[in-house]
Amino acid sequence: MGIAILDRCNKLISSVQWLQKRFLGDAPPITIDRHPDLALEFFAIKEKLTPLFFMPLASAAIEIKRMYEIVDKQFEETLEAWKALEREEMEAFAATNPPDGKAFAPSDNLKRALRAWASERHRANLVEKWTYLFTETYVKLLSGKITLREAEERLKRVDPIILRIRDPIEVGKIFNAWASNWEGDKWEKRLNHLRQMERWKKTPK
Fold first, then answer.
1. pLDDT digits (tens, 9 = 90+) for 28-85
2. Residue 145 falls within a domain, yes or no?
């Protein structure tokens, strides 16, 4: 639902751009049989002007969508890098026939790869919260539960600058949660999962 609302806001922006061109004479008038029709012109402009009441929310929607696209790309890149290196090291460890209970020892490179992904996971969590906040705010505004000013105030929490700040505590929590798969004999279950995921990727759809 959140993505649908973001797309709706993009359409609203297109309406504004059309109106600007029309008022400046850069867009052709609406015609019937090649003759200008003022009635249709009036109703078309009226229809496009109606959504402008919600336009202050469009900037937040565009910002969230832009951040989502950026974070999503970096999330996938760090995820693939981490998983590939993790499987490589686990396969090498498994080839040594380690005794039961011996813990897998990750390299510093693998730790850095996991921490890089944990950082992107943290940023993705923030964007996900903002998407939910926008959806909730938009629905409340449409239903008349809050005013436009209140909606704008709620969306002030959407701040792209926050994405540049890596919260070491939150990133650390994510890192530790996944690094726990390296403890004791958990690495075997993790390796089997990585193998299964690789087989699933290669399975024809």
1. 554 444 444 444 444 454 444 445 445 567 788 888 888 888 888 999 999 999 999 9
2. yes
Sequence length of the chain is 205
Half-sphere exposure of 72 (CA within 13 A, CB side): 7
Residue 15 within a domain: no
* Beta bridge pairs of residue 36: 31
Sheet strands (E) in the chain: 31-32, 35-36
Number of domains present in the structure of the chain: 1
Name the pTM for this structure. Answer: 0.70
Q: How many Å apart are CA 4 and CA 20, to the nearest integer?
A: 25
* Ordered DSSP codes for 178-203: HHGGGSTTHHHHHHHHHHHHHHHHHS
- Read off the pLDDT of residues 1-16 as tens digits, 9 standing for 90 and up: 455 555 655 555 555 4
d(CA 71, CA 69): 6
What is the C-alpha to C-alpha distance for residues 203 and 136, in angstroms, rounded to an integer? 39
Whether 172 maps to a domain, the answer reads: yes
**Phi, psi torsion values for 32, nearest 5 degrees:** -125, 125
Q: Quick one: DSSP state of residue 50? A: G
> What range does the domain containing 79 cover?
56-202
Q: Report the pLDDT averaged over residues 134-159.
A: 85
